[in-house]
Amino acid sequence: MLLLLLTACITLLTSAQASSNIAGAWYYGWHATQGAPVSNISWDKYNTMYYSFAITTSCVNNISLAGSDGWLLPAFVSEAHAHGVEAHISIGGWDGGIYFSSDVATAENRTAFVKTVVDFVEMYDLNGVNFDWEFPNDQGIGCNTFNSDDTANFLSFLQELREDYTGSRITISAAVLRTPFRDSDGNPSTDVSGFAKVLDYIAIMNYDVWSSWSPVVGPNAPLNDSCVNSSEQRGSAVSAVKAWTSAGMPIDKIVLGVPSYGHSYSVKPSDAFVSGTKTLAAYPSFNASNQPAGDAWDDTGSADSCGIYHGPGGSFNFRGLIDGGFLNSKGTTAQGIYYRFDSCSQTPYVYNETSEVMISYDNAESFTAKGTFIKNTGLLGYAMWEAGGDYNHILIDAINSAM
């Protein structure tokens, strides 16, 4: 009997590694010295981990780990391999993909960039590369190099990478927006079948759908939005999967990106509640000129890669919501905090009436809903931004159990 129990426990602990689905997360190297060291990663919960970020540079022969505590990458890879987890490098990101366009703009550059990527993979003994080029044919953060042939050039680069001996043996994925890469006219591509042949999968970043730039408070990562007014439809997991599959990406080559964080808003009580009640209202107005500070990992204000200053982002990781008193240690609503779970988007909100701060985020219930969606639709799995944002495995256990 004891042997059977031990066997059951071992099976449960290693189910993520044993699954053919992707159970992944991005690991932000900079946070290794901010309370999320490599030793704290719950390796048994995942089978894939993406070290973030290596960034493009003005030299096609070089990608850099500057700003991501790159000295930790060897230890990250070693720990991943010791636990049977694939170690990938994520290249790019919001402010790290400035030179993607020029890196793949010509045949000569594409060949050089293939060598750069392959050399990096071999140097660090990586299992895969995740290209986080979010804005082909778009200026992105504001100073990205770009041209109308970006998507076609990216495909040509990936095809050449696959022809390389090392490139043919590693996992190659792309972190993408909710709509397919832009074509030469700047519209979402209607045919991505070429990418489906060279990528092992795409990871749809279904988050930041609503944030401080939105007109009202909305869900950070809606599972669905077809059940609300058209004015409140800004994209969701459901619509994103439909867009990519309609353009030729197989359903089993799609991974759903899920967030371990949410966005904060300054909302007056008169807007936060349905009139005459203490029920939180849907899509309330907020004061955009008074962005609440986020948790300890939130950017308090700095210049981006383009040299433009931005104030606080107002983001809260799941663990930051607990530290900030919005949630208790079980991940449920703390005393004195108002809560609402939106049945359409399948996402929660919390509100502190005293500080007048409302936060749209994800919890165990919304991660369960996303896991069920992944299973029922036949998606390949999930990738969470970011590993350090969870608390006591609450989010990961929820989505893993649902899948």
Keyword list:
403 residues, alpha/beta, eight-stranded parallel barrel, 28% helix, 20% strand
Q: Can you offer a commentary on this structure?
A:
The chain has helices at residues 2-13, 15-18, 73-82, 100-103, 107-124, 150-163, 193-198, 237-246, 269-272, 318-323, 364-377, 394-402; strands at 22-28, 48-56, 63-64, 86-92, 128-132, 171-176, 201-205, 254-259, 261-266, 302-303, 309-310, 315-317, 338-342, 347-352, 357-360, 381-385. The protein is of the alpha/beta class. The strands form 3 sheets. Strands 1-2-4-5-6-7-8-16 form an 8-stranded parallel barrel. α8 (237-246) links the parallel β7 (201-205) and β8 (254-259). The protein is globular, with a radius of gyration of 21 Å. The model is unreliable at 1-14 (pLDDT under 50).
Helix share bin: 25-40%
Principal-axes shape call:
globular
Structural class: alpha/beta
The secondary-structure element order is HHEEEHEHHEHEHEHEEHEEEHEEEHEH
Mean pLDDT: 93
Strand content: 15-25%
Gist of the model:
The chain is of the alpha/beta class and 403 residues long. 28% of the residues lie in helices and 20% in strands.
Topology summary:
Layout: H1 2-13, H2 15-18, E1 22-28, E2 48-56, E3 63-64, H3 73-82, E4 86-92, H4 100-103, H5 107-124, E5 128-132, H6 150-163, E6 171-176, H7 193-198, E7 201-205, H8 237-246, E8 254-259, E9 261-266, H9 269-272, E10 302-303, E11 309-310, E12 315-317, H10 318-323, E13 338-342, E14 347-352, E15 357-360, H11 364-377, E16 381-385, H12 394-402
